[in-house]
Amino acid sequence: MSSLAVQARGLSVKFGDVTAVAGLDLDVKEGEIVGLVGPDGAGKTTTMRVLCGILVPDAGEAVVAGHDVLREPDRVKARIGYLPQRFALHPDLTVNENIAYLADLYSVPAGTWQQRRDELLEITDLARFANRQAVQLSGGMQQKLALICTLIHRPEVVFLDEPTTGVDPVSRRDFWHILYDLPRQGVTVVVTTPYMDEAAHCSRIAFMHQGRVLAQDSPAALRAAITARILEVRCRPQRTAREALKRYPTIEGVEVFGDRLRVAVSAEADPAAIRRVLEEAGVTGLDIRESAASLEDVFVALAVGQQSQEDDSRAGEE
Amino acid sequence: MGVAVQVDGLVRKFGDFIAVNEVSFEVREGEIFGFLGPNGSGKSTTIRCLCGLLLPSAGTVAVHGLDVRRHAEEIRAQIGYMPQFFSLYSDLSARQNIEFYAAMYGVPRAGLQQRMGEVCERLELGPIMERPAGNLSTGWRQRLALATSILHRPPLVFLDEPTSGVDPITRRMFWEVIDDLAQDGTTVFVTTHVMDEAEHCTRLAMMHYGRLIAQGSPDEMRSRHAKNMVEVRTGKLWDTLAVLQASDAVVEAVVFGDAIHAECHAALTNPAQTVREVLRSARISVESVAAIQPTMEDVFVSLARRYGHPEHVAAGGDG
After folding, report:
1. pLDDT on residue B309
2. Contact B192, B37 (CB under 8 A)
3. Considering only residues 26 to 65 of chain A, which have any Cβ-Cβ distance to chain B shorter than 8 Å?
4. Cβ contacts of residue B76 below 8 Å, gap of 6+?
5. What part of A 119-148 touches B (C-beta under 8 Å)?
6. Position A318 confidence tier, pLDDT thresholds 50, 70, 90
7. Which of B162, B165, B236, B295 has its CA 20 to 30 A from that of B287?
């Protein structure tokens, strides 16, 4: 049984009237790659800042790398690496100089980090640009350099805030290959992303929405937990089908995918009845197949579920 | 089906930098044409050439049969364009922005209120109509920008990264509106750097460093490229990954949760069997190995690696 690298209980952060994080609980085991996944404004960055000991929460507590972030923020900071969304590389310093500067800032003893630098330059494919100024690198390469700077002091836990946003898919893959090396060295990774397809790379996902964790589990378990089934419907005209389905009970959502509709139906829905509804609406060339739920299907189902719960409880108060 | 946009040998240079390099494709009327590529691959520059906002350095572009060099004005009257970056007036309310764009596009005053009502209802803009555009969140801004670009019922709309910074629920609404437009016969040309969004389009073109590297329907793209994908499950994720990455049979192995997706060499006839053998000789016991459909990102990465990248220098341009 591995111990916890991050444990947060009841974290809340308010900025004036806005509640950015609302009673968040999170557990991250050592050596995991955990994704905080959710749209812009879900509270991912704020949560990360609290866990890094940069922002003091209004309520709750968190232990990171064995230390309490409220009582020992400096001990936490010494054991973690943090890559914020806008990492300040020094544009006129070279790749090597940027790394040396960060090693110095973290007081890594001279002579002990060069081997780690060379390893990281090797796996990021940046070795041949070691003497190039940071400003002369492409966006993807700058982001990889920022990651090296975050890892140079061998942190136990690394926090990466949307590290691949705006990075091309090939560099993004390269970036993930670097992250995969970390659990093998016992390093825990917490990464935020708004992209559901990227979330699938993580060993565990915490879905965030409006400052809360909606669910946390492995991607496979999250997909399995969704009670709705997904039907792929092909027919013409598609809009007639969409309108007919939206009026029909047991249909939880209809999404358009080019020449087909992805229809989320509740567990008790009867595909034969759905077929009849569509035929009665007058569509032609009808083809219905069952499909696996995507992580986005899971997220939307959870987010919509939370929304209607809140609406219910509000209605109950009135 | 007629041709909405015909592009032949389009080149656009900025000084020495070739943003768009010998690109040819056609967009048919009524289709949802997805123009894919990472940031900086030349998507926005291409869109601007198609809208008549930038002149091509070489090659020809015809929109509804009109040459952009000679008929830019007429073309602009027939299209809607939603640029990638904030295109609204911050101090004006959402309603005033819509009215302003309606006037710019020459929407007749009679019927304007009704049309505004339709579009605003479709995009659920009611709650923000009186708020200054500058105070809106990204999701709302994008919805408002989409409204301003379709209000005048153009037969062809260009949407440049419309879903960028938009939450998944709003994103679904966007794709529904795009489908509505197509069902009504509007041609939609949409760019995205999020590869999974490609699945919403009827046809696709992929850009990579200014070159067009593939085009076809989503199904065609998957069956032509990156076709030998297998999903591997074992109890030992990281050991398995290392073995697969070192194997000659595997082009690339990537972790997805508790499974690994491995792209095997195209020449292998039974990649699942080969992978089983590779793992057996490494003494890793297998839970499952199964052929899977590649994602659009798999397709892109596979193609992009094959094309390689030109020695790029500075991070320049927004695309």
Report:
1. 64
2. no
3. 33, 39-41
4. B51, B52
5. 135-139, 142
6. very low
7. B295
